[in-house]
Design a protein that fits this description.
Length: about 325
């Protein structure tokens, strides 16, 4: 009797229905394991990439919150022993931060507006207003992207010196307004590509209503180029904000008109002078401010203060920036 029961159980276990159920359960376990493995691998790769990207920022933040006396302590590598905002105060004094921040923002904002206006107009002309030799002119625009700015700096300096604009921020505004600003060739290419993607029926409908070329550009084409405008605006603002080459060539940064990039380049050399003239030299001892590690720390904190407004701005415009990149089709 027992043997018959055991035989029935074996047959029941080996029935096609049970075999299919076991196979399905095994497939489900395999898929869950594969999904878990892919998720784990993805998390490890993303975590590593985030660490590589965020490492300099984390390091600068820790340096900013480190007390000046920790510069003489070789055991302090990552986590400060003494937390303080003294390095931030010294960096603010060294950069003449608030005045330089206002001047840099003014220079970048005005240059951005002028570059958007000039490059958008040039991009529309190259995309829609075809004339004899337009392709050759656009080839020269592409060449300006390839040619390094150092190759043209002497001629530009002599020109602005002859019209007495060296030492004035007007020279940067003039270059931006005439389509010769930083990376203007790339911006013209972006607008040209974007306008070519818009349907010609928009222009034809405006022409039927009697609109002029400039009115079509201003009232029809430009409102539809929001993606390209946002992209060019952000790039123009950031590149002008970080520019040190043209600011130095045209001698724009002066004692009365400081610029963050030039103050940052000389941060290590200006620490003693800034502390002395502001009466803050007694905040730290000579063994600290003469230490090269302390000077490097102040330079890093100054760089953090310089890029902090850009990081804050990016937080608010991140969504618009990503959408504009997708619309304009910029890659790489």
């Amino acid at each position: 009797m027992n043997l018959n029961i055991q035989a029935d159980l074996k047959l029941q276990k080996l029935s096609p229905k049970n075999v299919n159920a076991q196979r399905a359960a095994k497939v489900r376990r395999t898929r869950k394991f594969q999904a878990f493995s892919l998720s784990l691998m993805r998390a490890i790769i993303l975590g590593g990439l985030c660490f590589v990207i965020l490492y300099p920022i984390i390091q600068q933040v820790l340096l900013a919150l480190r007390a000046p006396q920790d510069a003489n302590d070789p055991t302090v590598i990552w986590i400060p022993k003494n937390w303080s905002v003294q390095n931030l105060r010294i960096a603010v004094i060294t950069l003449d931060y608030w005045k330089a921040l206002l001047n840099t923002f003014k220079l970048s904002a005005i240059s951005m507006v002028l570059q958007v206006a000039s490059t958008a107009l040039a991009g529309y002309a190259f995309s829609r207003l075809k004339f004899k030799g337009s392709n050759i002119l656009f080839l020269f625009v592409i060449i300006t992207i390839v040619v390094p700015p150092q190759a043209l700096s002497l001629a530009q300096y002599i020109y602005f010196r002859d019209i007495r604009l060296v030492g004035k921020e007007t020279s940067i505004y003039l270059m931006s307004g005439l389509g010769m600003g930083i990376r203007s060739g790339i911006f013209i290419y972006i607008f040209k590509s974007f306008f070519q993607g818009l349907p010609k029926e928009l222009e034809e409908a405006a022409q039927v209503d009697g609109a002029s070329v400039f009115r079509i550009f201003w009232n029809v084409m430009l409102p539809n180029a929001r993606g390209a405008i946002v992209t060019v605006s952000l790039f123009a603002f950031v590149w002008q904000w970080n520019d040190a080459y043209f600011v130095k060539i045209f001698e724009i940064s002066t004692a009365s008109f400081p610029i963050l990039t030039m103050r940052l380049l000389n941060a290590a050399d200006n620490v003693y002078a800034a502390l002395f003239y502001t009466g803050a030299l007694n905040l730290i001892g000579q063994d600290i401010w003469s230490n090269p590690m302390f000077l490097a720390t102040i330079a890093n904190v100054a760089a953090l203060l310089m890029m902090l407004p850009l990081l804050i701005m990016y937080i608010f415009v991140q969504r618009q920036f990503v959408e504009s990149i997708e619309r304009t089709g910029i890659v790489g």
